[in-house]
Amino acid sequence: MIDPTTQDNWIREWLDRREYEKQASDEHAALAYRFGLQSEFEHPNRTFDEVEPALRTKWHDRYGADGPDWDDVSGSARAGYERMHTFRTRA
């Protein structure tokens, strides 16, 4: 994994430039982005689209009906997942 400071920097960059999912608060988008970063580490060599159903289930199990809705934050989770994948495969 990467260090927490780098993760925080990536999240800030994402929040500054995200063009969609404005219905998700910054807090929820950051949570989903970090979830995506961590999830890629658990699913190396698989695309987000391949694991999205499992991630949706895991998100719901973790945050329940009272947490952020997956459909509102999945783009942020995808962005984190893909950022980690790019970082890991270029290292």
From TrEMBL:
The lineage of its organism: Bacteria, Pseudomonadati, Planctomycetota, Planctomycetia, Gemmatales. This is Uncharacterized protein. It comes from the Bacteria.
